[in-house]
Amino acid sequence: MSYVCVGEVIPAQPDAELDRGRIPVSRGVSSLQRPRQVSSFVRQLGACMILSRVVYELFDHEVEWLAAHPNPDAVELGRQLHLELEGNSHVFVAWTWFPSGDDFYVAFAPTSFCTGNPDGVVDASDWPLWSGLIGQEIELAYMDESTKQVLEVRGGNSKALCCSFGRGMWHIDSLHVCGRLPE
């Protein structure tokens, strides 16, 4: 199965909706867009979003934890999730601050949220949480657009959740990656 993007991607422009306007988004047109309430970045690149690889970008303590807990059902990332797409496109998912600066939420962008290299990386593409999404056209959508606490990554019959949840609390500076909502 192949997908075709129509339209031209023009240079990145700031989007005030995402991370205080500091995250560049590409603007383009797609023949396979779905009428969903999602960020402009996903609306414009939706048809090109065939997931090819899932990478957890980690801090040192997360590398140690994952070494002791291989292939967990859920992971808390302090850094970011990196989704590699066919056609050499990327989606980065991380926790960040709302423009008001008083709350955290899950955000995504075509460029990294972090400066410098990660302390470690783990390819999670073969893990049960992600394996059903590899090779699928994926869609990213917030469960509740007003709070942006849970971002669904779904494709085919599979999904993964990226939540601003950690240490048993919502609205926190951690990205909880899982298959079902945390309690």
- According to DSSP, the number of beta strands is 12
How would the global form be characterised? globular
Q: Mind describing the biggest β-sheet? A: 5 strands, antiparallel
Strand arrangement, major sheet: 7-6-5-3-8
The level of helicity is 10-25%
Q: Structural class of the helices, strands and pairings?
A: mainly beta
The stretches of 5 or more residues where confidence is low (pLDDT under 50) are: 1-40
Order of helices and strands: EEHEHEEEEEHEEEE
User: What count of helical segments does DSSP give?
Assistant: 3
Head-to-tail CA distance between termini = 38 Å
Oligomer: single chain
Report the mean per-residue pLDDT as an integer.
77
What fraction of residues sit in β-strands?
A: 35-45%
Radius of gyration: 16 Å
